Amino acid sequence: MLWCDQAMFGQGTYELSADLKIEAGKVTAVIGPSGSGKSTLLGGIAGFHPQHSGRVLWKDADITLLPPQNRPVSMLFQDNNLFPHLTVMQNVGLAVSSRLRLTVPQRDRVNAILDRVGLGGLGDRLPAALSGGQQSRAALARALLQDREIMLMDEPFSALGPGLKAEMLDLSVELAKAAGRTVIMVTHDPADAARVADAVIGVAPGIAFAPAVTSQFLRDPPEAFKDYLG
Ligand SMILES: Nc1ncnc2c1ncn2[C@@H]1O[C@H](COP(=O)(O)OP(=O)(O)OP(=O)(O)O)[C@@H](O)[C@H]1O
Prior knowledge:
Elements (H helix, E strand, L loop, with lengths): L1 E10 L2 E9 L4 E5 L6 H9 L4 E8 L2 E2 L10 E4 L11 H6 L10 H13 L15 H14 L4 E5 L7 H17 L3 E5 L3 H7 L2 E6 L2 E2 L3 E2 H6 L3 H7 L1
Parallel strand pairs: 2-10, 3-8, 3-9, 6-7, 7-8
Antiparallel strand pairs: 1-2, 1-4, 4-5, 9-10, 9-11
Helix pairs in contact: 3-4, 4-5
The site of adenosine-5'-triphosphate has 12 residues, from helix 1.
Protein name: ATP-binding cassette domain-containing protein
Pfam families: ABC_tran (PF00005)
InterPro entries: AAA+_ATPase, ABC_SmlMolc_Importer, ABC_transporter-like_ATP-bd, ABC_transporter-like_CS, P-loop_NTPase
């Protein structure tokens, strides 16, 4: 379980309170109006933003003071964060080694994950020679290969068309679940939550609410989200 224990996350002058528990091994969607603090919540869990008070615990271990690289967290961003001058193999390989010359076993691991995300044979390409969807697949491969227990997704597929977005969401959740990951994903689209999420965290300005079962949240949303969900 990931426990935000009376946590107060900051982003500049903005503060978001989160006092909630997220079940391990499940998919939890984070929904709320623009600017309410969804990215602040993910950034706080990842350790990117300062935490003003409270604690964050993962499986009973206090990770509040750990820097991002030491947290059990990988993150998928909207812009994919691929290095333009590195090949797909090198970009994905960064998950296992900071050296660009990978060992044979490391290359085998990268090739295996590239196959799984549908990029088999494209390891020598630069990101610019991939389509938007293929770039998303490369970023997904890197996040999966990082082998961290929690995968945070901050609308990584929002720039893709609706069909491709749904396909990538399904693929990410399928592979993350197969790897036993806990997925926490920001989305603006209730249909995404209905499609893949076990639970929903509603974020209203300044506060992230405890997760609710997805079907219940969408059928009868808390007052603060009725206008937003329409
Ligand atoms: N450096 C900063 N200083 C002050 N306020 C900030 C800073 N960065 C972000 N904010 C504010 O923090 C609030 C939460 O931002 P955040 O990006 O977490 O919202 P969000 O729900 O993810 O939004 P969106 O859906 O539009 O991506 C916003 O109101 C934003 O204006």
